[in-house]
Specification:
Elements lengths: L10 H16 L5 H8 L4 H9 L6 H10 L4 H18 L6 H27 L16 E6 L6 E3 L4 E10 L8 E5 L14 E4 L7 E9 L6 E10 L13 E7 L2
Helix pairs in contact: 2-3, 2-4, 4-5
């Protein structure tokens, strides 16, 4: 089945599908029939549409794709929700046809940039994705949610402070490190936070508390879940094989 041209999809949807394709590649490029057999809930044709269709598939379908590739369901659900919010906003009526034409030109320009970037990537030497931390002996462990337990109910437009406790379980001292959001750019209607937050210097076997101030979206109901990964000053991910930490709140009026 031929894939639709990239220009037939919204840029956000194309980027999401591309990440799903990479997930499948990391899982060993299983056939869609094997993925369907592993899922037992959807057909191979439906799974194929997840990365080739013109529309964002329902979460139930995307979830089976992620499960078949041993992906992190919570992280991918947050990504799916972000894309859904952007696409929903794009479907709102546009009273100005000229504005719609301008948006089309911008979208075409973005497609051109993506195409050029793809050519550059193809020409670059193959690089293996890191499977472990870049610093030998570096390791971390989630200890506790100090504030705001999962699924805490908050008011629309309210602010709250989330605190996690982490432990440096390795032999490398943590210096000039940060937690960075994984869902950048932030979708409309999502919880607002800084893009990254500092992690205090921490000696091996030491514990550290990391704090972020969060603004809930002004509308409700919204289920808000934000994932974070540890990075260095250059935004290089330090534990690529580890699951992200997150906070999860329910925005209710």
């Amino acid at each position: 089945m031929p894939e639709p041209r990239t220009g037939e999809r919204a840029p956000e949807l194309e980027a999401f599908m591309d990440e799903l394709r990479k997930l499948r590649t990391r899982a060993g490029e299983p056939s869609f029939r094997k993925m369907a057999a592993k899922s037992g809930a959807v057909s191979h044709a439906t799974l194929h549409l997840t990365v080739t269709g013109k529309r964002l598939q329902p979460w139930e379908t995307v979830r089976e794709f992620v499960r078949a590739c041993d992906g992190d369901e919570e992280e991918w659900h947050a990504r799916w929700q972000g894309v859904q919010l952007v696409l929903s906003a794009d479907r709102e009526p546009d009273p100005a046809p000229r504005s719609r034409s301008k948006l089309l030109l911008v979208a075409l320009a973005l497609v051109a940039v993506v195409a050029i970037a793809a050519v550059v990537i193809v020409l670059l030497p193959d690089a293996q994705e890191p499977s472990g931390p870049p610093h030998p002996g570096d390791a971390s462990k989630f200890v506790a949610d100090v504030t705001i337990p999962d699924d805490t109910v908050v008011k629309p437009g309210s602010q709250f402070v989330k605190v996690w406790e982490l432990k440096n379980t390795g032999t490398v001292e943590w210096r000039k490190r940060y937690l960075r959001r994984t869902d950048l750019p932030v979708a409309p209607g999502a919880c607002r936070t800084p893009d990254r937050i500092p992690v205090n210097d921490t000696a091996p076997q030491g514990n550290v508390q990391v704090t972020v101030t969060v603004s809930a979206p002004p509308t409700a109901p919204v289920d808000c879940k934000v994932f974070w990964k540890m990075v260095d000053e250059e935004n290089r991910e330090l534990f690529p094989a580890s699951k992200p930490i997150y906070f999860s709140v329910l925005v209710r009026a």
